Amino acid sequence: LCRGIIERHGGTITVMSLPGQGTTFCVELPVEAVCTTAPVSPEQDRAPAVPDKSILIIDDEPSIASGLKRLLSRDGYTVETVANGHLALAKLQERSYDLLLSDMRMPGIDGPSLYRTLERQYPHLLRRVIFLTGDTLNPETKTFLDESAVPCLTKPCTVAEIRRAIQQVLETE
Questions:
Q1: Distances in Å between the alpha carbon of 29 and those of 13, 17, 39, 166?
Q2: How many other CB atoms are there within 10 angstroms of residue 121's CB atom?
Q3: Backbone φ, ψ for residue 133 (5° rounding)
Q4: For residue 59, which of 65, 84, 128, 162 is within the disulfide window of CB 3.0 to 4.6 Å?
């Protein structure tokens, strides 16, 4: 099982065992940046320039969703959170948002499936999506992000990177 996971990520695993000396496992994984961000200037580390906007955070990890909500609420945004794409679509029927900050991997409707639904039902939101992912080595994730050209932050990311990405998306409206 582990070997399959490692190989799917482009890595290798080797085992060396000598009688009476124990066993050594060596796992090598490639380092590849799927989501890139430009360097952050000191000005971008401050609160955003457009704090009167609403953001929907879509993440199945409660600690990440609540941490992002606290941060962005302090910056002046109106922030709501949901745990998956199904709940996000229900929220979008109730009201509009200026930005969607979504995890890639969630139960039910994941990030890519949510994005495809937005293409059909809410195409005006496509340029207002930012993805968060810790799944940077998955070929499907990489292909989706390359093809969609959606801004993406790699977990873990800094507060400055989050603020900068949000500013960039909101300033392109």
A1: 9, 21, 25, 31
A2: 11
A3: -155, 145
A4: 65
Tell me the HSE value of 44 on the side-chain side, using a 13 A CA sphere.
16
Of 11-20, 43-52, 127-136, 148-157, the least confident: 43-52
12: tokens are 């290798």
Tell me, rounded to whole angstroms, the distance of Cα 161 from its chain centroid: 12
Q: What does pTM read for this prediction?
A: 0.73
d(CA 82, CA 60): 7
Burial group, residue 4, by CB count within 10 angstroms (0-12, 13-18, 19+): exposed
Whether the Cβ atoms of residue 102 and residue 114 lie closer than 8 Å to each other: yes
Q: Where are the alpha helices (DSSP H) in 9-155?
A: 62-74, 85-94, 111-121, 139-148
Average pLDDT of span 61-78: 93
Backbone angles phi, psi at 12, to 5 degrees: -135, 155
- The CA-atom distances, in angstroms, between 125 and each of 47, 77, 150 are 23, 17, 11
Q: Which helix (H) or strand (E) covers residue 160, if one does?
A: helix 159-171
